[in-house]
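Below is how a single chain appears once it has passed through the pipeline. First comes the sequence as given, then the structure the pipeline wrote out for it. We keep one example in the README because the format questions we get most often are answered faster by looking than by reading.
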Amino acid sequence: MPKKKLPPPQPARRPRADAKRNRERILEVAKEVFTRFGAAASLDDIARRSGIGSGTLYRHFPTRDALIEAVYRSEVEKLADAGPRFAATLPPLEALRAWMLLFIDHVAGKMLIVPAMDTVAGGSSRLIMGSRGLIRAAFAALAQRAIASGDLRHDTDPNDLIRALVGIFHTAYEPGWEKTARRLVDILIAGSRPTN
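Resulting structure:
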């Protein structure tokens, strides 16, 4: 008996515009609520503040862990996406500096949601480790562009810059760390400029 040919698989449907807006709104509100109330924040409250029903929230995020992870991943994606956007609109060195300052804002926001992230299986460390590649790639592309333009010395290693920047974040629990971090961004850039 000849085998029946299966029909070709249907292409994956793109999410409807309203579903995408709902998801983005949920993530925005969830970030605010988790920042304010921690992991114990009510998912029903998040749904209500988002202007959607609880069923819609659970359709997008079936568990609290899924929502917390999605909030963090969304913030990392926004940070990574800023790299090409800055590169398209700013000169190389300005783009690099703008991204480094945005990274400081990202870390400041992350510090507020870490208590909620710590409740996810594997804790905040797992989420942060999982995002490192995306963040490093965005930074390295901007740094390489600044090196290629001659704004930074040709022997500048982007890894050295990112390590120094990450080192700054070890003081993130101290008052005033953000102001110091912003000043250190300028020091890092100045120290990497050509000397002639």
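The chain is about 70% helix and 0% strand.

See the next section for the split statistics.
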